[in-house]
Amino acid sequence: MSIPKLSKLEMQIMDALWTKGECSVREIHDEFPEKGRPAYTTVQTMVNRLEAKGAVERAKKIGNSLIFRATLSRTAAHRRLVDEFFSFFDGRVQPVIAHLIQSGKLTGEDIKEAQKLLKEHTEKREPR
Amino acid sequence: MSIPKLSKLEMQIMDALWTKGECSVREIHDEFPEKGRPAYTTVQTMVNRLEAKGAVERAKKIGNSLIFRATLSRTAAHRRLVDEFFSFFDGRVQPVIAHLIQSGKLTGEDIKEAQKLLKEHTEKREPR
DNA sequence: TACCTTCAACCACAGAGGTAGTAGAGAATG
DNA sequence: CATTCTCTACTACCTCTGTGGTTGAAGGTA
């Protein structure tokens, strides 16, 4: 199957797995900031659903607790999100850029960085 | 209340209103490409929900059919979407840009355009 | 061993979104 | 006027998310 769609909460859980590596539900739960932290069982439910979606798998068992591992890469999940998002704009990036600039999220630095990346990218596919 | 969150289908419906102006449910329905067009009543349901969310209002009645008008602007809805989306990335634009470049969505043209917009933007807020 | 803690597993439930059917009012037409 | 078409209004139903309670097994501890 293709890359599963992940909701916001699911992404937060994956984030814990991606940054901390293999984790128990308890560890994932603790990663949430105290303020607005969901119940332990909520995290548990989401981890189970992620497992059902194939985004996560059981790595091993320590004592009576399961340790999970992300099987879906952060990059793949992000790409999925980006594609999904841009489909709202017919795949056109320009309107999005306009909003980013107006809200001050996109700076000159970012643009410079983008140019560098683009150059690397094109050079890689069209080596002279 | 603040800007309501709109789903994909809801956005498609708003798109019809935004581009065609005031519309009846029938007209909105007809805007969908034949392939994968939802049932008339489905569109109706969504329009009602959009009305409940305050994104749309009844402009007038012609015969026995209602004509709707968007009360939420395309810009506001888009900004909402963009903010929502970037919150997945902690508000950082760079990882998104990387994906865009890798998938070929972001071209040199786009970057040039972005620079122009950014210049205009900064000049407007900090006129020398 | 008897108790306390910690998990996994399972269950429940509400809200949003997507999908659509049906009933009944009104308009249009022969 | 009677029939047919077209809309609105209402209802139903399924899936996905988010949320969290309950139960019972496993492990640790006095």
UniProtKB/TrEMBL annotation, chains A, B:
- Record key words, sorted: DNA-binding, Transcription, Transcription regulation
> Which Pfam families does the entry link to?
Penicillinase_R (PF03965)
Top-rank taxon:
Bacteria
Quote the InterPro entries the UniProt record gives: BlaI_family, WH-like_DNA-bd_sf, WH_DNA-bd_sf
- Give the record's GO biological process terms: negative regulation of DNA-templated transcription
Q: Which molecular function GO terms apply here? A: DNA binding
Residue spans making up a coiled coil are none
Family the UniProt entry places it in: Belongs to the BlaI transcriptional regulatory family.
Put simply, this protein is called Putative transcriptional regulator
- The scientific name of the source species is Silvibacterium bohemicum
